[in-house]
Every structure is written in structure tokens, then in C-alpha cells.
Amino acid sequence: MRSRTAALLIWILLFSCNRGEVNTSPQTPTLPKKTEDKKVVQAQSLPEDKVPEAVYTYNPEGKRDPFKPAISNEVKKELLKVPPLQRVEPKNLKLLGIAWGWFGYGAMVQTPDGKAYPIRVGTQVGPRNGSVKAIGERSLTIEERYTDIYGEKKINKVSLELPLREEVQ
Questions:
Q1: Domain at 104, CATH number
Q2: Does pTM top 0.90 for this prediction?
Q3: Could you tell me which residues come within 8 angstroms of residue 81 by beta carbon, excluding any fewer than 6 positions away?
């Protein structure tokens, strides 16, 4: 409303000036301009505190918080303080080998950057606090427990298998 009023005043001031030109045509009454001037004066004379404003309030009842992360168990850690295996998604790991002996089973995994790490049952893997649950003769199982956006507890199981001899180059 104020921008319209200001634009109207500027328009009236610009086109009402004679600019040194002589107008030879007879003057016609400008009644619409006068009524517009009265409207402008009336709009300016209204106090600002009496102008009705639309007030909107947000009712979060029955709705989830849009600013809350979708996976609530996700712990925000600085990358420098987190071990390398906890920076990588479990599905991006490559199983290089499995060893067993009197100590039980152990495995060697490779991260996408090409570095290899030894792991055992209970080793933490992945950014969502996953851990190695089982190491078999040809496979490795990693479980991640998390809460989804609906508040339900979920378990994500990732299984890594050793490649067959024909697949290894």
C-alpha cells in the first residue's frame, strides 16, 4: 500500500510540472487527480498501529519437527576425531580376507581410499554406530541400529562376501 502511494505521488509530481513548456490546449478539469490526492492524504493520515495485520501461529501438535534429523541416532562427530572405519558407510567396504585360529575369526576390509584395516566381532563400523556382528568362513555381517523418521527402531544388516577365486584378478 505504501509503495503504491509513493509511486502515485511521484507520478503526480512528475506530470503536474509544466517543465517550461507552454500548453496551448485548453485546460480540462482533473477531477480524478484531486480524488486520488484526497485518498493519498487519507491513507497517510491513518495511524500505523490501527492497521489490521494477519497473524499466523504454527501449531506443532500431531506433526513431527521439520528441523529434527530424519535419523535420530546419528551422532554428529568431527571427522578428525572419528576412526577411519566409522567415516565410511558399511556398504562401501570391500572384504579382502578372513583369517581364523585360536583367537577366533578376524577379517581385513578395504575402504574406498584404498587403505586396509583389520576388524573383529564388535568392531564399530559406519557413521551410525554399526558394529560387526558375525564373521564366517566366507562372509562378514555388520548391523546398524537406528530410529527412522516415524520413531520406529530399525536394524540395517550389511553382509560382505569374499569374492570367488575366478573373480579375483
A1: 2.30.30.830
A2: no
A3: none
